[in-house]
Amino acid sequence: MKKITSAFFILITTMSIFTIAYSYSIANENFLTVKQAEKKWGILSFDAKKFTMISEEKKGAMAVDLVKHKKYVNSLREDVIKEMGDPDSYFFSDTILAYKITRREKNKEQWHLIFIPDDKLERVKEVRIHKRCCYK
To answer: What are the C-alpha distances in Å from 63 to residues 12, 69, 124, 127?
Structure first.
């Protein structure tokens, strides 16, 4: 009985540590506010069909419009994929849709648009612009 109790305690402790670490890492990630993003790229009316085919500068400006107007907030995740196509970037988990704004290049910031799901993983809870990886 003591072995089961100890194993259970270790499991719960480990899960708690990972949960706290995950929450801390998301809270301290490099996200742009709408104001910062608008200063960086300006703003351009969002068009899902054009988003994947336009220049990085225009993608950034469209991303600002999308985030500012909360276009996909409360939308089904499947609807985002139907309109924008398959995600072409990654953020922590396959459950978080991510689309490149800028491509990865040496010594250059890489940005992507992320769609954070609700607790049921059905709808979009929040859309943010995130700096991916290494260059600051």
So the answer is: 40, 10, 15, 9
User: What are the tens digits of pLDDT across the range 35-79?
Assistant: 999 999 999 999 999 998 899 889 999 999 999 999 999 999 999
pTM: 0.75
Longest dimension (CA), the chain: 63
Cβ proximity of 98 and 117 under 8 Å: no
What is the amino acid identity at position 81? I
The Cα–Cα gap between 49 and 130 comes to: 21
* Edge-to-edge order in the sheet of strand 97-100: 31-32, 124-132, 110-117, 97-100
3-state secondary structure the chain: CHHHHHHHHHHHHHHHHHHHHHHHHHHCCCEECHHHHHHHHCCCCCCHHHHCCCCHHHHHHHHHHHHHCCCCCCCEHHHHHHHHCCCCCCECECCCEEEECCCCECCECEEEEEEEECCCCCEEEEEEEEEECCCC
